[in-house]
Amino acid sequence: MNDDDSKEWDDLIDQQVIVVVLAQLKLSRLAAHLTEEAVAARISMTPTDYRKLEDGESDPRMSTLQRAFRATGSAIQVKLMLPPDVASRPAPPAAAADQEQG
Description:
The chain is mostly helical and 102 residues long. It has a single domain (3-101), classed as lambda repressor-like DNA-binding domains (434 Repressor (Amino-terminal Domain), Orthogonal Bundle), CATH 1.10.260.40. 66% of the residues lie in helices and 0% in strands. The chain has helices spanning 3-31, 36-42, 47-54, 62-71, 84-87, 93-101. Helix 2 (36-42) packs across helix 3 (47-54). The longest helix is centred in the first third of the chain and has 29 residues, at 3-31. The mean pLDDT is 85.
């Protein structure tokens, strides 16, 4: 797989993840018996901008998605799963120094 193919694959995966997350947001809103306007008001967003978010017509920040899910009484969690060979590698020296300071 060349770099262009890899980028296309990554973009496709990103798009699929966004579609699933936004579908879950809409389901959460409907389960909470809330309108798009009600959620928009709860997160200080215009109804038009919220509709674009939920319809996938914008590129929302994670913080915006978190606020929207909380407004529906739900939450979004992201779990990063590293392959075992990556997870077991020692941290690079700079990362190790950051961990010691933190």
